[in-house]
Amino acid sequence: MSKNFSIDALLNNSDQEHKTSPTFYINPLFQTFLNQLQFEQTKTINSLSHSLTTSDSDEDDNSSISSINKTTNSSSSTRRKRTAFSNEQLIELEAEFQQKKYLSLVERSEIARSLHLSEIQVKIWWQNRRAKWKRIKAGQLRQFSTHCESNKILCPIPVHVKKPFTS
After folding, report:
1. What CA–CA distance (Å, rounded) separates 26 from 7?
2. CA-CA distance, 60 to 146, in Å (whole number)?
3. How far apart are CA 128 and CA 132, in angstroms?
4. What does the alpha-carbon distance between residue 115 and residue 122 come to, in Å, rounded to a whole number?
5. What are the pLDDT digits (tens) for 69-91?
6. Reduced to 3 states, what is the DSSP secondary structure of residue 54?
7. 103 in Cβ contact with 111 (< 8 Å)
């Protein structure tokens, strides 16, 4: 009695099945990932097609666009909007910055309270302003050094020639 040890025989596949649909091994974790991805895509497509077919006003169109943005870029939905400081706040922040380039926790808290801002907003403003200050300072140093190089006065360096000392 001869046994067939071919792959098809071990997998119980006939030659006909093997030709029409090849069998591949897929890691179960990867298969789970693919299934989840396919489910998410199907869910998104269904919700978008539903919102596009049932929308009658501009508000519905805007909400479907925002839902597209939320599904495609989830990190942007958690990001805060840019803080627009008022002129009074900026004047006060700049005046404080001219006095002190670094704030203590107490000073930060007092400034935040007086300007009706959060401490984090004050901290970030201070960090950004310090970075700008350093950039400006570096640019001024660069300008000064190039200005000095162009206005150099060349002076001959005295060279001492050894002569015998005579009295």
Report:
1. 17
2. 60
3. 6
4. 9
5. 554 555 557 887 888 899 999 99
6. helix
7. yes
